[in-house]
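User: Sequence recovery, please. Input:
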């Protein structure tokens, strides 16, 4: 099968090229908009006919003519309809058909057949005749019943044709991707690099598809870094929301570093504005030693720590800290799949409290994605990226921040208080994420063929889901 690609600025120009080279009967397999114009995949009608087995020929009478040309998939439906019409016409033209019912009396049938003196040959096998009321059968009904029995299942044929078309489209998608990689090797290099750095296939494909085709390796590298830096959101490179003060609750699963992060933020604020300007509240009444850990940090900073056992107690402490510039609430760690996440969010629903989600950069990208969804990260004031120093692949965490359009408010990369608390620097984070690819173990690296198979399979799965959605 020789599939040819045609590219032009408009669909009309592309179709003119298809007709000029393949003729008026050319089969258009796919058309899609691309950068700079329209792309059409097509092949000659003879190519498609030669690649598929021809269906069995229908029974022909003396007046039927043989088909003049090989049959293609496009006109197969018309062939089925014409065949049915011929069979229906032949059933009407044959009066002696064995399936037709003769409504004449028995004596007339015998005389007409010329065997009036002999009983029918099937008379001996028939049971004794029982007189029954006459039943009048309409000839039209008989013809309709017979045509229904002989009629092919058109719905089944159409479903098979749709499946064949879908399978052919999937194969053409794979061929198109492979050819695109051959024509644009920079796209393939970018995909492999992003995937090995931990970015999701979805974001990797989006970036690769927007890469200008005429860029060399150095230009593509510069373009990729700028695109990632531009899409990683921060409020300001000079300060974060914590520098302006307010009341913030640190949320997140167990072990992401909420308590240590609260101590780091409080220490930096106390060094600048004084210990009397900071208030610390812990609502973690589940984890053993959680209150003692924050109290220890509070004693070092000269900041008292209060324990809120319920919502009313928390409201009392917030009222007591009305004159403090910065109030931090350390909450209990709840896994993203725990039902208590909703209760925790409801307890902190006060308009005075702004929520900040703490995310472990060393976690799996899928776990970070679930955490953002469970804790309603889109409604939060921002995100703190903790344990950056422990992350082997930082791309997964940055990928989730970019896809969910979250604002990064701070970065923690160690246990030291407050030295390991930093304002977000998108360029530094992007450089670190992409540098991970060069240090990746060979066991987790993609070969060129493996990368192509992975992305082609992903495209086929997405196409199949789209077809199923259209059927539903």
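Assistant: Recovered sequence (472 residues):
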């Amino acid at each position: 099968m020789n599939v040819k690609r045609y590219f032009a600025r408009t669909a009309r120009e592309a179709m003119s090229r298809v007709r000029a080279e393949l003729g008026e009967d050319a089969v258009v397999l796919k058309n899609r908009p691309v950068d700079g114009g329209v792309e059409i995949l097509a092949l000659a009608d003879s190519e498609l006919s030669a690649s598929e087995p021809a269906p069995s020929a229908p029974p022909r009478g003396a007046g039927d003519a043989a088909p003049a040309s090989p049959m293609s998939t496009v006109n197969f439906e018309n062939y089925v309809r014409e065949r049915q019409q011929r069979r229906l016409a032949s059933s009407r033209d044959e009066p002696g058909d064995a399936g037709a019912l003769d409504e004449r009396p028995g004596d007339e049938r015998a005389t007409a057949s010329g065997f009036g003196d002999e009983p029918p040959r099937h008379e001996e096998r028939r049971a004794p005749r029982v007189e029954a009321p006459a039943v009048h059968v309409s000839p039209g009904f008989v013809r309709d019943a017979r045509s229904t029995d002989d009629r092919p299942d058109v719905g089944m044929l159409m479903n098979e044709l749709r499946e064949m078309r879908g399978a052919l489209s999937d194969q053409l998608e794979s061929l198109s991707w492979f050819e695109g990689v051959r024509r644009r090797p920079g796209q393939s290099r970018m995909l492999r690099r992003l995937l090995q750095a931990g970015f999701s296939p979805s974001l990797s494909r989006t970036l690769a598809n927007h890469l200008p085709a005429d860029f060399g390796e150095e230009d593509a590298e510069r373009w990729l870094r700028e695109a990632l830096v531009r899409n990683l959101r921060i409020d300001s490179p000079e300060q974060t929301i914590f520098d302006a003060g307010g009341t913030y609750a640190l949320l997140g699963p167990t072990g992401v570093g909420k308590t240590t992060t609260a101590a780091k933020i409080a220490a930096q604020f106390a060094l600048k504005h004084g210990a009397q300007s900071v208030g610390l509240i812990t609502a973690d009444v589940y984890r053993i030693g959680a209150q003692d850990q924050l109290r220890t940090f509070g004693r070092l900073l000269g900041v008292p720590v209060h324990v809120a056992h319920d919502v009313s107690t928390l409201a009392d402490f917030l009222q007591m800290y009305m004159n403090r510039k910065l109030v931090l609430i350390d909450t209990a760690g709840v896994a993203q799949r725990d039902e208590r996440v909703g209760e925790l969010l409801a307890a902190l629903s006060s308009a005075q409290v702004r929520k900040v989600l703490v995310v472990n950069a060393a976690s799996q990208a899928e776990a970070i994605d679930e955490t953002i969804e469970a804790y309603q990260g889109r409604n939060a004031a921002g995100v703190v990226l903790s344990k950056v120093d422990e992350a082997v692949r930082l791309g997964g965490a940055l990928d989730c921040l970019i896809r969910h359009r979250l604002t990064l408010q701070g970065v923690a990369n160690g246990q030291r208080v407050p030295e390991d608390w930093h304002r977000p620097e998108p360029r530094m984070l992007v450089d670190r994420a992409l540098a991970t690819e060069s240090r990746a173990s060979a066991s987790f690296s993609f070969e060129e063929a493996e990368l192509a198979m992975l992305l082609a399979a992903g495209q086929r799965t997405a196409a199949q889901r789209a077809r199923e959605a259209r059927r539903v």
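DSSP finds 17 helices and twelve strands in the chain.
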